[in-house]
Amino acid sequence: MTGLTVRAEALQKRFHDRDLGTVTAVDGLTLEIRSGELTALVGPDGAGKTTLIRMIAGLLRPDAGALQVLGIDVIRDPQAVQDRISYMPQKFGLYEDLSVQENLVLYADLHAVPLAERQQRFARMLQMTDLAAFTARPAGKLSGGMKQKLGLACTLVRSPDLLLLDEPSVGVDPLSRRELWKIIQQLVDEDHLSVIISTAYLDEAARCAQVFVMNEGRLLDQGPPATLRQKASGLTFTATPPAGQPARQLQARLIDAPDLIIDAVPQGDNVHFIQQPGADLADLLGGAAVQPRPEELEDAFMILLRGESEGQPISTPPTQPAPAMPARRGDGPVIVVRDLVRKFGDFTAVASTSFDVARGEVFGLLGPNGAGKTTTFRMLCGLLPATSGQLEVAGLNLRHARAQARARIGYVAQKFSLYGNLTVRENLQFFGGAYGLAGRDLRDRIAAMTRQFDLEPAAKSGLLPAGYKQRLAMATGLLHGPEILFLDEPTSGIDPLARRAFWRTITALAQTGVTIIITTHFMEEAEYCDRIAIQDAGEMLAIGTPREVREKAGPEGAKDMNSAFIAIVEAARARRAGQVAA
Amino acid sequence: MRVWLIRLMALIRKEMLAILKDPSSRALLFAPALMQALLFGYGATYDLTNAPFAVLDQSRSAPSREILARIEGTGVLRRIATLESSDQIAAQIDSGAALMVITFPPDFAARLAAGTEAPMQVILDGRNSATAGAAGGQIAAIVARYNADLGHAPPVEVVRRAWFNPNYESRWNLMPAMIASLSMLQTLMLAALSVAREREQGTFDQLLVTPLSPLQILIGKALPSIFIGLVQSTIIFLIILFWFRIPIAGSVGLLYLGLLTFTTASVGIGLSISAVSLSMQQAMLYTFMLIMPLMLLSGLLTPVGNMPEVLQWATYANPLRFGIDTVRRVYLEGASFTDIAPNFLPLLAVAAVTLPLAAWLFRHRLS
Known about the structure:
The structure holds two protein chains of two kinds.
Chain A: E1 4-17, E2 21-34, E3 38-42, H1 49-56, E4 64-69, E5 72-73, H2 78-82, E6 85-88, H3 100-110, H4 115-129, H5 144-155, E7 162-166, H6 174-191, E8 194-199, H7 202-205, E9 210-215, E10 218-223, H8 225-229, E11 236-240, H9 247-255, E12 261-267, E13 270-275, H10 282-285, E14 289-292, H11 297-308, E15 333-344, E16 347-358, E17 362-366, H12 373-380, E18 388-393, E19 396-397, H13 402-407, E20 409-412, H14 424-434, H15 439-452, H16 466-478, E21 484-488, H17 496-511, E22 515-519, E23 531-536, E24 539-544, H18 546-552, H19 561-581
Parallel strand pairs in A: 3-8, 3-9, 6-7, 7-8, 17-22, 17-23, 20-21, 21-22
Antiparallel strand pairs in A: 1-2, 1-4, 4-5, 9-10, 11-13, 11-14, 12-13, 15-16, 15-18, 18-19, 23-24
Helix pairs in contact in A: 3-5, 4-5, 5-6, 14-15, 18-19
Chain B: H1 2-21, H2 23-42, E1 51-57, H3 62-73, E2 77-82, H4 89-94, E3 100-104, H5 108-114, E4 121-124, H6 129-150, H7 170-201, H8 203-208, H9 214-243, H10 252-276, H11 280-296, H12 309-314, H13 319-333, H14 337-364
Parallel strand pairs in B: 1-2, 1-3
Antiparallel strand pairs in B: 3-4
Helix pairs in contact in B: 1-9, 2-7, 2-9, 7-9, 7-10, 7-11, 7-13, 9-10, 9-14, 10-11, 10-13, 10-14, 13-14
């Protein structure tokens, strides 16, 4: 099948906001998307990906320009387009109280799928998504990954000519992500379906036939991944730090030199970096051994984006530690967990878990959706009482001295959870007061935090851009100089650029002696951690340094953390299945 | 202790800011109290002010004309139709055009002249019982006066003096009760939304990880709601006192002591609702479900004494019953503390149950 599914010319969309003024979401976009292919839209937050998808779906009317979808002028006749496409928004509207089967039937009714076709279509969807065994289960009781698959199945109850997916893999663990992509791939290969997908994961974009890189409403570049990748050709290297030096330190040093280095991330015990063309790195690298490595799509993406934000260092937040931070270095573990159990009725969310976290460590909790990591995390912060077991945080038992223990921890929630209609200063004043700071102490700390995170005290928090909201959340979590900082999926749904800046902050904090407990879905981020723990079905499957965990995963997982994670979880599931069978 | 207070003050300040900085909730705080007080003051009245009636005068005599003139002379009853025959009566009442139809039979004047009993008929629209009753009473009074003028003095005369509300104005009865009931609507809603909003927006977890104790959170959440409830009561109180000019008989201090206790109990109920709710929608639904029975069982419109005994017992859990009673008695009858002391017990009991319950639920609601 040849031809174009989407043809946009000088497309423009503005939004008017009472507080922010006019925002141009899509700015003179011209592009052509071929049919029968898998097409990716990538770009940082606010690039205009969702706006573009919603315009293609006929849900938003462009302010200017022409847009043809499946040969139809979508501006003039959105209904004709909507009759032939399927669209899965970021948050799909599943009816949580209805069962899997009932959800499918409901969407089939909504799309007027003929009864004769339904049985066959349902059977195929259920088989593809592996949900056949759960047809009677209410959608609300499915795990995050399963919900997403059901959303996709409901989107596909009828056979569309074009499938639009808006960040389907946000907040989905690697296993579920892999399954989701298997389904999408199958649809393209077998049905020659045209699929347009927006994503924050560049390894996903690399699987597509055509990639469009967007930024601030404009198209930065386009082409097949293999062509785009060549932008980074000859600039990508792997540096191995001298024995005994953590890769994280070298990575921090590299990323703080934006004139020489475009990007650097820890990878295994090494650092992957992209250099500026013609840069002399001898001084910067110190004794690290350097080897060229094959370029990837992410490298090209980083080069494109850095070209856009010329001159600005990647990490605006702290290069120097906060001044008044009381350093409480000492010996012994700062978190002690012994035989921790949490049950919800009959369901065991966390089964007899034990581990320690040393002071100043960056400790990562990884696991598929519904693995029990959120439950563990909430118990550690004192948000959820444990059913049994012992929990010590900052030397205090969480059973007896909860308020005192809470005074020593900071917490950054997954989504922005500060008071949106208060200003930055008012938020900080409140939380400072809640931690017992007042008067001069409070003023000094607020000044230090707003300086460190480059925040405008008078700005209304709810109107801050996503990256700054997170900085405010970090500033709030660190205001009282906690010994331990808890971060719950802080990088979920954040683009690579912002993630680099975020981790730079974290590594700087760890150096000042703050212990960091973090959950994440991005497996490559585990490489920033000193130690990680992988949980599934409430059990601790692996714990140790990233390298130890990778080695535990065997040859399959040694390559990178993503494959290590999948290998470990799958091995454990196979073992459990074997036990049940026996 | 100092740190304890710093923490509490930070929370109270944040709560006040959160309420006052949101333009929509700011408008919601004062506009409804003002509007509803005026609406109730003018709109909700059983008094005869402009009651329409129709006349079928088959006697067409001097006495019938005389009585009709006196009826129209009251200024509160208005003749809207003059009927020709008795089969037109039903249509007037059915359509609601007339509240009553007055009929003088053809032999009315003759019987009167003969000194025998001369009945006149008044048909009332019973669907509107309170106003119809008042209209009927009005006619009876006019006829009694007419009889007296004719020299037919009745052997026993009832002389009525209404205490506390000399002119029987229903506004006097309703409006002081509004001081309690209108502000309760708002405080209940405000308190019910306060925790639910935080849970929905995810800010409650951020609050729970701070060292704030449940007691501090409770006080920090309750005080602003109580304060705003009292401000609303004050707005309504001032409107009643200065706009509708209903004089207060009792002590203002005692009135506010009663209101404070009453509002605290309402906030306790609101916070308990809030602590169980996961979303604002849920909290609103629970609040609406609760408000109807609270109003009906409060004695606002119908006396508690008229209710079946089981329901009378149920009213003991209803702070509004004692809130309204306290306000009415202090306002209209000038009751002293000892008079209304029994009202404080149920109010304090409700607060003593709901406030600790809410504090416990903050942390122990299973998610």
